[in-house]
Design a protein that fits this description.
Number of helices: 1
Helix content: 25-40%
CATH topology: Double Stranded RNA Binding Domain
Order of helices and strands: EEEHE
Number of strands: 4
Structural class: alpha+beta
CATH architecture: 2-Layer Sandwich
CATH class: Alpha Beta
């Protein structure tokens, strides 16, 4: 599984990071790094929950960052 975190700055100055391939996994931060850390953390929590609920099988994960 390859997860890409895309990030961009909003008009109000906040940064938004979104994980492609995991609907609804997005996070805001005051800096690009803060937004990406929050998004990556949320993505890992979502994946862990899917495994615990047996909605997914274990697989190799690669995470990369893409500037929007």
């Amino acid at each position: 599984m390859n997860l890409h975190i895309e990030y961009e700055q909003e008009e109000d100055g906040r940064w938004l990071a979104e994980v492609g391939g995991l609907p609804g996994v997005l996070a805001y931060g005051n800096t690009p790094d803060e937004a990406m850390v929050k998004a990556e953390t949320l993505a890992l929590r979502v994946l862990a929950e899917k495994l615990e609920e047996e909605e997914s099988s274990p697989q190799s994960i690669t995470i990369s960052f893409v500037a929007a």
